[in-house]
Amino acid sequence: MTARLFALAVAACFAGGAAAQDLGTTCQLASTYDLTVRPDSLSFDRADVAPRNVRMHDGTLTTDGRAVALRPDEQDRVALFEGNVRALLPKVKGIASDGVDIAARAVRQEAATAAPGAAASGELDRVLGTRVADIKRRIAASQSTRDWQEDAMREYAQEIVSDIMPLLTQDVGGEAMQLAMNGDLQGAAALRDRVASVSSGAQERVAAKVTAALKPRVQALCPQVRQLGELQSGLHDAAGHPLLLLETGG
After folding, report:
1. Is pLDDT larger for residue 146 or for residue 67?
2. What SS3 class is residue 184?
3. Which interval of the chain is the signal sequence (predicted)?
4. Exposed, middle or buried, 166 (CB in 10 Å: 0-12/13-18/19+)?
C-alpha cells in the first residue's frame, strides 16, 4: 500500500493532470494507516491487517478496542507521540494550503497563455479564486489524512479544471472562429496549435513549480516525522506484537 500517514498532496493540474508531493516518501517513513486527529484522541485506521484501529489518548493506548498495559515511561512516549502529531498537523496543513496557491498561480499562467482573453477579462481570476478558497477551507477544516491523499487531491484538481475549462474553451473557440470567418485559416490553425502545446506540457510545468517551492519545506519537517518513528520503538499492541504506525521506506 502507498504511504498515508501525513500524506501531503497538493493539486497541480491543468486539463485533467495532477501531481502529488508525499511527506512520507520524502522523509523515508511510510504508514498503512489513515490518521484522524480528534479533540480527545488520535485514531489510526486500516482495513486489512490487525491491529485495524489504534487509539492514543493522554498517554493511553488501545488497539482494536483492547487497552494496552504500559509502563510509566511508555505512557510518556505515547503522550509525547500524540503531542508531536498535534504540533505537526498545522505545519503540514500550512504547506498544503500554500501549495494550492502555488499550483493555482501556475495554472493561471498556463491558462493565460492558452486563452489570454479569458485572463484579461478577470473572469478566470474570479472563478479560480473562488475554487481555491473552497479547497483551502477544506484543508483547514480537515482532521483526517483521507482528505489529503492523492485521490482526494485529484478530485480537487478536477474541480478546478471543471470551473476554468468552459472559460478557456469559449475564449479560444471564439477567437479561432473569428479568425476563420475573416479568412485567416492559418491563424486559426496556429491558435489551436498554441493551445495544444500549452496543454501537453502544462501538468509537468505546474508540478515542477509546486515541487520546487514545497520540497525544502517538506524536508524541514522530516526530523519531527523521524522522531515519531523513534517514539513508537518498543511499543506493542494488545496482542504483544510490535506497534508499527510508521515504517521505514515509502
Report:
1. 67
2. coil
3. 1-20
4. exposed
- Let me know if 139 is exposed, middle or buried by CB neighbors in 10 A (0-12, 13-18, 19+): buried
Type and span of the H or E element at 199? helix 185-220
- Reported in sequence order, the residue ranges of 22-145 that DSSP labels E, i.e. its strands, are 29-30, 34-38, 41-45, 53-57, 60-63, 66-67
Cα radius of gyration rounded to whole Å, the chain: 23
pTM: 0.74
Other beta carbons less than 10 A from residue 140's beta carbon: 12
Three-class DSSP category at 50: coil
C-alpha to C-alpha distance for 180 and 176, rounded to whole angstroms: 6
Q: Using CA atoms, how far apart are residues 87 and 220, in angstroms rounded to an integer?
A: 14
Residue-wise pLDDT tens digits, 45-73: 999 899 999 999 999 999 999 999 999 99
Q: Extract the C-alpha cell encoding 177.
A: 472562429
Grid look-up 498503512 returns: 32
pLDDT digits (tens, 9 = 90+) for 185-239: 676 666 666 555 555 566 677 777 877 888 888 888 888 888 998 999 999 999 9
The C-alpha atoms of residue 241 and residue 221 are separated, in whole angstroms, by: 29
Least Cα distance to 116 among 195, 46, 218 occurs for 195
